Amino acid sequence: MARRPVAAVAAVTLMLEAVGIALLNWILGLVVDRQQMSLGGMDTDAMSVGTWVGGGIFGVYLLLCGAVLLRMALRDRAPGRFGRILLVTCAVTHGVVGAFSVGLVGWPAFACLMVVLGLVVLSLLAYEPGGAPRGGTAEAESGQDAPNPA
After folding, report:
1. Fewer CB atoms inside 10 A, N or C side of the chain?
2. 27-46 residue pLDDT tens
């Protein structure tokens, strides 16, 4: 199975998505700031700064998820508990954002988000939770024999 290439492609995809999200939020913050838009009487500066901060935090989150996947691809090992939790939350986030994107943006955005979701989930499922790749290669490398079912 192609564990390493899937994890590497997922890592690159998430890193590109992080840059895209941060850039999109930066542009939206500039638009709100320059046009003096207000929503329900909120301060324009607070809205634009909130957009920039939110985009930055989400971009760093996606970069961190991409770094965990890149480390998985380079080491050919499953992530630890924190990395696994991070990737599960990334998958859930992509599922929720994908569901919202159908109505707001359209089916192509939904398809892109579902491809990223699939890459993250496939990367998670390709490895045993204990750190070894699926398929028993860790037992073969350590010299332990599998018990013989009699």
Report:
1. C
2. 999 998 888 877 788 888 88
- Which tokens go with 62? 């996606």
Asked if 64 and 72 touch (Cβ cutoff 8 Å), the reply is: no
User: What's the whole-model pTM score?
Assistant: 0.81
User: Which token pair is 20?
Assistant: 């895209």
CA distance 4 to 8: 6
Cα distance between residue 147 and residue 33, in whole Å? 66
Q: Quote the CA–CA distance of 99 and 94 in Å, as a whole number.
A: 8
DSSP category for residue 136: S
Number of residues written out for the chain: 150
Q: Identify whether the C-beta of residue 25 lies closer than 8 Å to the C-beta of residue 51.
A: yes
Burial class (CB in 10 A: 0-12, 13-18, 19+), 12: middle
> What DSSP string describes 60-104?
HHHHHHHHHHHHHHHHTS---HHHHHHHHHHHHHHHHHHHHHHHH
